[in-house]
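Allow me, if you will, to draw on your knowledge of protein folds for a short while. I have a record of one protein: its chain in single-letter code and its fold written as discrete structure tokens. The full record is reproduced below for your convenience:
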Amino acid sequence: MPAQSTATVLSSSDAVAHLASYQCLDGLSVKDLMDSRIHGGLTYNDFLMLPGKIDFPASDVITDTKITRNVVLRTPFMSSPMDTVTETDMAISLALLGGIGVIHHNQSPESQAAMVRAVKRHENGFIADPVVFSPNHTVADVLDIKARLGFCGIPITETGHLGAKLVGIVTSRDVQFESPQTLLSEVMTKSLVTAPQGVTLAEANQILRSSKKGKLPIVDDQGCLTSLLARSDLLKNQNYPLASKDPNSKQLYAAAAVGTRPSDKERLKLLVDAGLDIVVLDSSQGNSIFQIDMIQWIKQMFPKLEVIAGNVVTREQAASLIAAGADALRVGMGSGSICITQEVMAVGRPQATAVFAVAEFASKFGIPVIADGGISNIGHIVKALSLGASAVMMGGLLAGTTEAPGEYFYHDGKRVKSYRGMGSLEAMEQGRPGASGQVNGKPGSTKHTPHLSSKPHENAATSRYFSESSAVKVAQGVSGDVQDKGSVEAFVPYLHVGVQHSLQDIGVRSVSELQAGVKEGRVRFEVRTPSAQVEGGVHGLHSYTKRLYA
């Protein structure tokens, strides 16, 4: 008969109290985890967060976050300013879903400004600068607005300008089946429902609901047009409760990238005129005199414009840009799926270590950081947030969606879209007169490249990697393709709900509570060995189907 154990068995009721006998909580603190002298530089795959206690539903988790000093989003999602990721459709869709898309600048300034303008006009409260025509304009003018901006409900004033006497309105039904040469005076609707200047947004919305009209002109005592309200915006408010909107104008936030060359100052002026809210200074190595000068110039010329500077991966880089006046920092160098900077240049930093180091420093000055690169799943998003990032910038994760630029094609039997790094030779050749636009040098493959309708222009990719004057272009990125992911209308809500469930598992109710818990040592981590990473993935199956959401 086995000998009886002499060890004292504690009472089950004392289990929770007994935890106090341990010197520290289970797992590692973030400082222990990110000690480079012990663990080296870490990527997102190199660690996990330990679970906490769940006493709330995942739907209660708040994902609001600051992406600059003054801009708050409802979700921590940003799309990268790449010419195979973000143009008008991506910027609008992502903003409606609570994030923000940064429109790329590998196109003419006029084309980029038109995209910014389309984002700003997509959803409004009171439209303070509506498109206005006179009775002498034609149906062709209305159709042109429809083609360029996507709407054709246009107020008609005596002079064709805001502030003049309102005489009618033209809608899509008014111009259907009409000759393009027909004057608007012959087809416009003259019986109007209007609201007086000074009406509140809630009151105006109620008038619009009861009138069953598509547009509600706002007029002063003399009947002169002062602004406009659109029924379509009411529907968007219902369908997109998380939409990223300026709290004053109720317009969607618009963000766009520019370089740091003298010509980019003229580009930025066009973007600001189009309504730009946030400018991203696009450089692979942000700690340069060019970017510092650009930040200072922007703050002098456009003091209300939010500036996201970068890219940086060290405290020293961050300090220079914070001192220059940056409102946020973009963190990452060589960590993107299509980026080969670390391989070719031997410069960069593992992304998790970079995010933690920069965020820890920048937080002392109230500067948010954006984790740019290395994000390939929901877990990576949450890990970046736990290390201090306010948001993540995604390229490859959003490439291949319906809203990303380019046409779908089939490769090895799978439906894909082209995706290329801005440091690839293909991106560096974009915009040159006579550039082939071939992907991977394959003749006849131009139909799969992003559709950029702008005229020849200075190349954004060469300026991003300081290669304008180089006789030999050294690639720091590659070109490839990514599988069809469907629409961001389904994919981004999947990411959002996934983040909520992850924070629920950790036992925190918001992004701010997550970061506070990490800082105070309550949220704990564990290093993953290579075998642990294998164990944590799908293994031991002959075959399987991986469906991410339904």
